Amino acid sequence: MKKFVDTFHYLTQDLPHISHIAQVEIACSQGAKWVQYRCLSKSDEEMLAEIHPIASICDDWGTTLIVTNHIHLVHQADIQGVHIEDMDADISLVRAQIGDDKTLGASANDLATILKHIQNGADYIGCGPFGHTKTKPNNCQHWGIQGYAEAVAALKQAGIDFPLIAAGGVGLNDVADLLKTGIKGVAVSAAVNKAAHQAEAFKQFYNLLH
């Protein structure tokens, strides 16, 4: 079953000055079609207390809501899918747990992992990191523009048409060159959430990607 995968994946994040709910309200007011709730600091009860109003906001705007990592919450709220950041995770087991109707995203930083996730039932893959990121610190080699071009070419050579999303340190000035590689879109967090004017920053990305 082919799922809707947007070109602009907007991720919330744990910030002291603005709640996840407020972040989603800003994004949806600016046209967000895809919101990924990425919370790493709260209990299940605290997350559900945020997810329910966030799901209502997304429903009002017709926005897809994805939750990062917390598979067990997917059936406890109006959530359309889950994104798994553990690159070593067995995505086939996650698929069995969430069912075929939910959207399943996975993270990868090399072609072998991309192919494994595709085989195991992912609907899209977030690849990277593109460059330096403080949102999700890691020691993985930066992909740069060339990394995405090579991944897209390798899939094409294998006869595979599959949505790849560039993630990790993507800035506004990178979007045009990234899209030229043939990837589906980009994932953005801090470039919007830590901007002086979040709504304006979101709209700038949105306009480049739609």
TrEMBL record:
Keywords: Thiamine biosynthesis. InterPro entries: Aldolase_TIM (IPR013785), ThiamineP_synth_sf (IPR036206), ThiamineP_synth_TenI (IPR022998). It comes from Pedobacter aquae. Residues 19-192 form the Thiamine phosphate synthase/TenI domain. Pathway: Cofactor biosynthesis; thiamine diphosphate biosynthesis. SUPFAM superfamilies: Thiamin phosphate synthase. GO terms for cellular component: cytoplasm. It comes from the Bacteria. One of its GO terms (molecular function) is thiamine-phosphate diphosphorylase activity. GO terms for biological process: thiamine biosynthetic process. Pfam families: TMP-TENI. Gene3D superfamilies: Aldolase class I. This is Thiamine phosphate synthase.
